[in-house]
Amino acid sequence: MNANEVINGKWGRIWVNGELWAECKSFEGKVVGEWEDISFCEEMGNKRKLIGFSGEGTMVLHKMYTRGGNLLAEGFKTGIMPDIKIVSKLADPAAKGHERVEILQVTFDEFTLMKFEDKSVTEEELPFKFGDYNYLDKIA
């Protein structure tokens, strides 16, 4: 085990619809399994059957642009939402490789019109859900 090979999030990047959002402070995309309990006669323990999954995540951006508004404002008003794809990459140069994931059929739950606090750096948080994903690169 070499501690230098533990990946540092400093080297993370995201692209939304092909555009680099370099001001990303943090990013999380995760898959949550949907399970149904299965019980068999003469067995006390429950088993579980996978019946689907949901994808969800959150990105936090240093506030430099009107990212949420530029991407979502018109769609929320008209009901016609854009097709959104996110590609995330984590590539610490000291690690044994890099990881890339594409997240597809992304829908954002909300965006903030305006938020600020005196003597505070401003951030924009964008929670989202998604319907599909693919690993583009994995670390062996």
Would you write up a description of this structure?
The chain is mainly beta and 140 residues long. It has a single domain, classed as Roll (Pnp Oxidase, Chain A). It contains one helix and nine strands. The strands form two sheets. A five-stranded antiparallel β-sheet has the order 2-1-5-6-9, with no helix packed on it. A hairpin with an 8-residue loop joins strand 5 and strand 6. The longest helix is centred in the middle third of the chain and has 12 residues. It is globular and about 65 Å long. It starts with 11 loop residues before the first strand and ends with a strand. The relative contact order is 0.25.
Q: State Rg.
A: 19 Å
The shape, in one word, is globular
What is the number of E strands? 9
Q: How many distinct helices? A: 1
Task: Enumerate the spans where pLDDT stays under 50 for 5 or more consecutive residues.
Answer: none
Mean pLDDT: 96
Total domain units: 1
How much strand? over 45%
Q: Could you say what the CATH architecture is?
A: Roll
Give, in order, the helices and strands.
EEEEHEEEEE
CATH class category name: Mainly Beta
Helix content: under 10%
Strand order of the largest sheet: 2-1-5-6-9
Q: In the CATH scheme, what's the topology name?
A: Pnp Oxidase, Chain A
The description of the largest β-sheet is:
5 strands, antiparallel
Structural class by sheet pairing and helices: mainly beta
